Amino acid sequence: MTEPGLDDVQLQSRRFRMEREADWLKLEELLERVSSKSVTSLTDEEMVALPRVYRSTLSALSVARETSLDQNVIEYLESLCTRAYFFIYGSRSTLSERIISFLTVDWPAAVRAIWKETLIAALVTIAAALVAYGLVMNDADWFYSFMPAMFSDGRDPAATTESLRETLYSEGEGGLSVFATFLFTHNARVALFAFALGFAFGAPAIVLLAYNGFILGSFAALFASRGLGFELGGWLLIHGVTELFAIVIAGGAGMRVGWALANPGDMTRLAAASKAARASSLALAGVVIMLFIAGLLEGFARQLITDDGLRYAVATATGLFWGAYFYAYRTEARP
Amino acid sequence: MTATAANTETAPRKQERALITPEGVNLRIRLASAGERAAAFSIDVSIIAGALVVMTLLAALMGAAIGSAEFVGVVWLLMFFILRAFYFTLFELGPRAATPGKRLIGIRVAPRNGGRLRAEAIFVRNAMREIEVFLPLGFLASQGGDQVSGLIALSGFTWCAIFLFFPLFNRDRLRPGDIAAGTWVVQTPRRKLERDLAGGGERALSNFEFSTEQLDAYGVHELHVLEDVLRVRADETMAMIAERIRNKIKHVKKAGESDADFLDAYYTALRKRLETRLLYGVRRRDKFDER
User: Fold this and answer.
1) Predicted ipTM?
2) Residues of B in contact with A58 (CB under 8 A)
3) How are beta strands B29-30 and B16-17 bridged, if at all?
4) Range with the poorest average pLDDT among A81-95, A215-229, B9-23, B54-68
5) B277 close contact with A: CB closer than 8 A
6) Is the Cβ pair B127, A196 closer than 8 Å?
7) For labelling, which of A17, A81, A238, B68 has a CA lying 20 to 30 Å from the CA of B197?
């Protein structure tokens, strides 16, 4: 190639662009289509063409950076390549695929992975419940220390045995009551906090679990002292198996994060905590679903089923279901 | 054309981070600024609020139809929860990894270490939003009138302020959720491929002749400023710039020579000169660069 004279300028960078820009525009058009519609709007041929024009454009970017001083071309190529990179190496699975994979594999695997913490969380709750039970049994005044008035809703030591029995079998209003819905959103938030607060070395998560246990224990003591222990069990467990399990898992996830923060091993504290948070977060997403189911059980099943035996049967069934779903069926976690 | 801060490839732009593709090319992504993040968040919050208003009205209508105020309460609480818990997560789980607000601003979520954006990361970064934003807001909303409530409200406010400005206190503009999730928010600007200025310039150049000294008057920075001027093509600016360049390179304006033609021609000649030197490994940053 001879050096062109001034009256016959063909800039190298201009020639380069003229030769390559068809690929760039093709890539831009394909990206535009997949982002406005979906991947399925591409024909097979275009699917094959996409990585090719991507690599061609990417190499054009490298060349342009070294040889061209047309800043529009370079900025254009940078933005185009970045968008293409995120498409090609980013997640392409659709929302429904993600949800299916979550339900079948990722959720149980995530819960299994934190079984130790879940066990500790359960023990903390049980220990707190036992302590509160013992204290309230000895002196009914303890009840008021553990119980926010909002939750007891008239169910306190001042109530008569009859009215206590009443609360176990009639909810007053029908349907999924506002209170049940409130409880669900409340519990879901408690669970999210238990997890998010794991960053403070897990202590708030433990406090939250213990607090939950105290409420449980004092409730149990109050009803047991009136000879309503068995009935309360049915009332509580029909949805409580799911709900308590969910809160325990959330607390376990929070503890896992707090533990990683306190004992990061080879990583930096932040990296360790963030890794633990990511690993256990799917368990937490599941917790929200469990709480939703618990809310439904509380709102509907508990009101439709007033027979103690049936209530215990439902409680056992949900317990078996969750246990089997999380721990029995083993699939390989995603690599 | 004064030389401002070096605008070159060698000095990384502020907020620019390396993102090396598996093909080994550095994409030099730019992080979203705090302002862009805030704007996107405000848009999202407005959308959520709008959806809530619509839902409340619909629920109220249906509630009035079936005569149950409780129904309204249930629907409202559930909707509020679903929007709050899943709005951000579901949108960011999609292939665009951006909520409507982010998409409008032109930013998206990306993993800090490259690689794929995992569902876990999205979930974590949005679960943390719960303690960053909603928890303190809850404190603010649930206060009574006494002193303790005032203190709680104050601490809630302080908490909120700390998290609100958290992104301003680290270089990568991370909020706590981003730190936990290993993500950051990057710009995905859309640039149009404009016409090549050298096209018109080559035609104009046939009427001009520039000596090497005349072409060595400027560097890459000035070339890029000239490119911007030529793309906007405002007559007044062009006349002013043409005047300054003529003075600097001692070019005498010929009869019938238009400013646009002169600038097109000079741009092309300068770009050719600088690109040729670039091929030999010399990138002349600006007119002060003695190379």
Assistant:
1) 0.82
2) 21, 23, 25
3) antiparallel
4) B9-23
5) no
6) yes
7) A81
Tokens of B14: 């502020």
Structure tokens at B6: 């070096």
Q: Looking at CA atoms only, how far is residue A270 from chain B in angstroms?
A: 8
Phi, psi of B30 (to 5 degrees): -110, 135
For the four alpha carbons of B68, B71, B77 and B82, in that order, the dihedral sign comes to: negative
Dihedrals φ, ψ of B107, to 5°? -130, 165
DSSP reduced 3-state for B185: strand
Name B16's bridge partners.
Answer: B30
**How far is CA B195 from each of CA A71, A72, B34, B198, rounded to the nearest angstrom?**
12, 9, 33, 9
Spatial CA neighbour of A165 closest among A236, A237, A232: A232
Q: Residue B117: which of A13, A91, A184 has the nearest Cβ?
A: A91
Query: How many contacts does A have with B, using Cβ atoms within 8 A?
Result: 200
Give B186's contacts in chain A (Cβ within 8 Å).
Answer: 82
Q: What is the mean pLDDT of residues B151-179?
A: 79
Report how far apart, in Å, the C-alpha atoms of A274 and of each of A13, A258, A271, B116 are: 46, 10, 5, 16
Q: A127-160 in b/e burial notation, b at 16+ Cβ within 10 A?
A: ebbebbbebbbeebebbeebbeeeebeebbbebe
Mode of pairing for the β-strands spanning B107-111 and B29-30:
unpaired
Alpha-helix residue ranges (DSSP H) falling in A226-267: 229-262
Report residue A155 CA to chain centroid gap.
Answer: 33
Q: Which residues 23-42 of A have a C-beta within 8 angstroms of B?
A: 24-25, 28, 34-35, 39
The owner of tokens 């001027």 is: B229
Candidates A228, A242, A335; CA nearest to A288 is: A242
Question: In angstroms, rounded to a whole number, what is the distance separating the alpha carbons of residues A6 and A260?
Answer: 68
Q: Is the pLDDT of residue A62 over 90?
A: yes
> pLDDT tens for residues A255-268?
888 888 888 888 88
Name residues 174-203 of chain B within 8 A of A (Cβ).
Answer: 176, 179-182, 186, 188-194, 196-199, 201-202
Q: Is the Cβ–Cβ distance between B211 and B273 less than 8 Å?
A: no
Element (H, E) at A161: helix A161-169
Partners of B30 in the beta sheet?
B16
